[in-house]
Amino acid sequence: MKNQQGKAKKSGIWIVSIVFLAMALFLLFFMLRTLFENEIQSGKEERKKAVYENQAVHLFQKMPDIVLEEEDGKEISPLKQGEGISVFLFWASYCPYCQESVEKMDILAQTAKSMGARFFAVDRLDGEKETKEKALHILEEKHVQTKTLFDKERKAYKEIGLNMVPTLLVTDNKGRIIAMSQGSTPTERQLQNMISEAKDGKAFTYSKQLLPLLMTEEGGIRTNYKTSEESIPSGEDILSESQGILMEYAALTGNKEMFDHLWTYTKSKMFPEGFMPWVISEKTDTAVNALVDDLRIIGAIQKAEIMQEENLAFYQQYLDAVFLYNTEEGRPVDFYDIKMEQKADRFTLCYGDMATLEQMKKNDKRYLEVYENTLDLIQNGRISEKFPLYYSYYDYTKQKYEGTRLNMAEAMTTLLHLAEVGELPDTAMDWIADELEKGCVYAAYDIDGSPSEDGYYESTSVYALIVMTALEEGREDIAGKAINKMEQFRIADAENEFYGIFGGSDGTGIYSFDQGMALLAYEYYERMTE
After folding, report:
1. What local confidence, expressed as pLDDT, does residue 23 receive?
2. What CATH architecture does domain 201-528 belong to?
3. What pTM does this model have?
4. Which architecture does CATH list for 68-199?
5. Where are the domains of the chain?
6. What is the C-alpha to C-alpha distance for residues 120 and 88, in angstroms, rounded to an integer?
7. DSSP letters along 278-330, please?
8. With contact defined as beta carbons under 8 Å apart, do 259 and 250 qualify?
């Protein structure tokens, strides 16, 4: 009996031991799996960070005249083989992310050829991790028919400024890098869109994606894609701001049909009685205008060069309205409230569109004083040497500059307006360059130059405005970094219905201001790097 009890006791101990051991092994397995998954995720995040923050190559950069080798060692200069769209796929056999590139190489080459583009697969050689033999072996193993060229000692890779494989670049017929994909292999649809951008222009291709989402049949531009029944503005509400931005784009590109469509809506729906409200909404009647929006529309009319007969009469009517409602004793004011019959007692500095006012003073002598006073108000509003941007607004009642928090979209608009008339000090763009070097430009800053507590995020429109301002100032080093940062906010999933748009993959965050600024940034870059 005692022996049986002893055996039972030992058996129980063994069972308990086995259970504890199993639990310990399971816990160890779970911890190791979690650690492994975290390492993978960390690697993905680091790779993503490298793609966006450590790029030496940037969009619209001129592709250098690189020299590559064929399999037999014969040198070849792809860009000297003739004009046209070119696709370059840099890869290496040891790179795990390049396995997909190898498997898709023939499909990508066929896609490029079908669209009239040349395709160059380029193996990045270093003589150690990657050799011709290793590359040719994997191509044969995967039954790849597309011939590959070889970048000896990574010379072309370094000359272009690349920092990872796989990298796919698409250049236009002027040799500019119009589209790129780093760290992953694009799908067939993504490559088709990239080649379209190189053939037709990045701005034009984007406008074809954007306008069906935001433009109404009548020619109004929706505030954003998603509609909100409560907030104003949202959804189908039409902003004078949005009309002006798209009118400016149409004017810059000489798209008369688009301009006329937008302008017809703006005149008939928003300016029937000689006053332009800042928003048209079915939710409420608005009887307040915004100087900055009026000046943007006037500027678009100026750029469109349509000053004949009825158009000239309308233009003068608009100048009369702005002078009546948005100036006081030769100084600019933000808005006028028709119902209250009251002008604003402040001037927001980003409202001072100096290039437009400069043309207005040539057309109408009343604006000579307005131009000078507006420029003085902006220039005297610089915050400090340490933070060489400009205050938010000037309060006429208090006779002082106000605003302890800078919205960077507004702040960059002020810088752009100064740059367009050659009045922007170098220190402002130097500060922007320093912020980009640190990693990003935030959405809002306090007047001591530190990011605002609620401003620790980035914005499509801020980077777009940096691009335009930097190009006006001849600072392509800044413009290049900014457009790369801007590009990361596009929806990259080719299967998504909003593919290529700036915003959220579920349709949220697709705002007309962001889209319009990005569109103008593309157009500025295309025009200024021709």
Report:
1. 61
2. Alpha/alpha barrel (1.50)
3. 0.89
4. 3-Layer(aba) Sandwich (3.40)
5. 1-53, 68-199, 201-528
6. 5
7. SEE-SS----B--HHHHHHHHHHHHHHT--SHHHHHHHHHHHHHHHHHHEETT
8. yes
